[in-house]
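Need a sequence for this fold. Nothing fancy.
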């Protein structure tokens, strides 16, 4: 849309035109902070997973679970991370942790089983056995969903539960995190194993900023403009925050501390204290934080220019674009095409995959049958998967596919 000026001096917008880089944009936004707020709302809605996407992710987890139980019948499989909390992008990894009694994590054994069962393509699977937390990275051969699998990492479950608690405490948190995750993703700054800023640390940084907000102490944060909060985040961590001397702590209502209090906290630019292990810096692997900081700084400079009325007409930013948020965050057409592919092919994939009792990370977004009937006690509700027999094949049964088909097609909203 193009901004013009009426004789009264007020702005009006030309007819709406779709923006291929901003698929969330389905209407015209005002060229100001209110428009940015509304656009963030629409971005978050567009990024939220569809029912088909949630169900297929649940099926992929069940597929891995059955292979694990064939190999180690007493092992326990759980999900954590963004799939557990719901803060995942369409192409986000699924984080899985396997608990069992091993003297050493059986990374190579599981790698071999995943390849033999055709869950993972041998050209895409990677074993990062030298990482601080050894993991297996793979892409599901059928759905193209990426997975990270680790062993016996207890704190990851607590971390996911903490994020879920914070999401309930701060209703705006999920929308801000989704924008910032996409912001980092398109700049290749989101992978911790190459020094980027991971989802967990990013979320805690947002929480720390919200905790320090004066409006929160007055009980008004839930009414805050999302555009204001996003700009304040970029300003705080892009310009004002003293990375050399200051650490972040979210426990007990949140605070910032001097890194000199603990010598082990001074080794990294970004320091975030582990909520469950005081003195442990969970951000020490983000060694590219100086690049992230510069990206935040540039984002603040641009957004400030875009939403504040200029003193001269030639300084107006908005006429150059029909989406303020779209100047910082873009959705690659590959992601849009992937989501269309899922929507068009989910029935075929459903008949090829095994299925858990429930498919979602959140009981509040239950499947149609789950809304009619109370879920069984052993249904998958985002933590440990359903307590089925452990010697099942990883292949789907016809009943699995029919059940998924019936549940989706019985809901007229799909």
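Here you go.
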């Amino acid at each position: 849309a193009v901004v013009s000026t009426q004789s009264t001096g007020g702005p009006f917008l030309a007819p709406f035109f779709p923006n291929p880089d901003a698929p969330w944009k389905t209407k015209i936004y005002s060229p100001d902070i209110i428009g940015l707020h509304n656009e963030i709302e629409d971005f978050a809605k567009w990024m939220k997973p569809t029912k088909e996407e949630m169900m297929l992710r649940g099926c992929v987890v069940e597929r891995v679970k059955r292979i694990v139980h064939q190999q180690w019948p007493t092992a326990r499989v759980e999900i954590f991370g963004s799939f557990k909390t719901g803060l995942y992008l369409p192409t986000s990894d699924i984080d899985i942790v396997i608990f069992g009694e091993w003297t050493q994590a059986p990374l190579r054994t599981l790698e071999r089983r995943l390849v033999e069962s055709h869950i993972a393509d041998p050209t895409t699977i990677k074993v990062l056995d030298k990482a601080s937390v050894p993991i297996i990275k793979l892409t599901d051969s059928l759905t193209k969903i990426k997975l990270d699998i680790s062993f016996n990492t207890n704190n990851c479950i607590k971390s996911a539960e903490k994020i879920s608690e914070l999401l309930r405490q701060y209703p705006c948190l999920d929308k801000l995190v989704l924008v910032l995750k996409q912001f980092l993703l398109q700049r290749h700054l989101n992978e911790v194993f190459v020094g980027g800023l991971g989802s967990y640390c990013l979320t805690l940084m947002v929480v720390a900023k919200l905790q320090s907000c004066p409006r929160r102490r007055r009980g008004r944060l839930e009414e805050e403009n999302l555009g204001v909060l996003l700009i304040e985040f970029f300003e705080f961590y892009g310009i004002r925050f003293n990375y050399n001397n200051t650490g972040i702590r979210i426990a007990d209502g949140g605070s910032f501390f001097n890194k000199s209090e603990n010598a082990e906290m001074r080794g990294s630019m970004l320091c975030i204290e582990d909520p469950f292990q005081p003195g442990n810096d969970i951000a020490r692997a983000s060694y590219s934080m100086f690049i992230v900081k510069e990206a935040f700084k540039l984002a603040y400079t641009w957004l400030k220019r875009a939403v504040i009325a200029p003193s001269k007409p030639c300084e107006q930013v908005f006429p150059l674009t029909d989406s303020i948020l779209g100047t910082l965050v873009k959705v690659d057409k590959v992601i849009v095409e992937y989501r269309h592919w899922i929507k068009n092919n989910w029935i075929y994939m459903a008949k090829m995959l095994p299925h858990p009792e429930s498919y979602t990370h959140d009981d509040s977004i239950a499947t149609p049958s789950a809304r009619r009937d109370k879920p069984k006690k052993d249904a998958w509700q985002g933590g440990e998967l359903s307590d089925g027999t452990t010697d099942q094949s990883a292949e789907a049964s016809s009943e699995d596919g029919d059940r998924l088909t019936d549940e989706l097609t019985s809901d007229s909203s799909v």
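For context: Confidence is low (pLDDT under 50) at residues 1-17, 363-394, 408-414.
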